[in-house]
Design a protein that fits this description.
- Helix content is about 65%, strand content about 0%.
- It is mainly α and about 120 residues long.
- Helix 1 packs across helix 2 and helix 2 runs antiparallel to helix 3.
- The longest helix is centred in the middle third of the chain and has 27 residues.
């Protein structure tokens, strides 16, 4: 963080990518199916949730920085709070949508595991 960058765009990019990678990694691990997926699907899942986390961080920061505060009042939440919240929400939403789409597409395929409940 203390690399000597003076441009605000560099600091914002570090924040967006840092929040996006953190939230995306957490969402990837939360929706991970190691026993049923090949490497291509795992890589695509990781790319989708990390990308959604970065976009969510950017969107949350933009939302938080444009909130107007009433006269003589201090904002209770900073734009960085909204960036972290946006990255977590969007990364998890992307994980849910991706897992649901994957389940819908592969629902008719037979799994290699024998179902003893039927």
């Amino acid at each position: 963080m203390f690399l000597g960058f003076k441009l605000i765009e560099v600091w914002l990019a570090f924040m967006f990518f840092g929040a996006g990678i953190g939230a995306g990694t957490a969402a990837f691990v939360a929706w991970l199916h190691l026993d049923r997926e090949n490497n291509g699907v795992l890589a695509l899942t990781a790319a989708v949730v990390v990308g959604a986390g970065v976009v969510g961080a950017w969107g949350g920061f933009e939302y938080g920085s444009t909130i107007e505060v009433e006269c003589c009042a201090m904002p209770t939440k900073s734009p960085i709070y909204y960036a972290a919240l946006g990255s977590a929400v969007l990364a998890n939403a992307a994980g849910v949508v991706f897992a649901a789409a994957r389940g819908f597409i592969t629902r008719k395929k037979q799994t290699p595991f024998h179902n003893t409940l039927r």
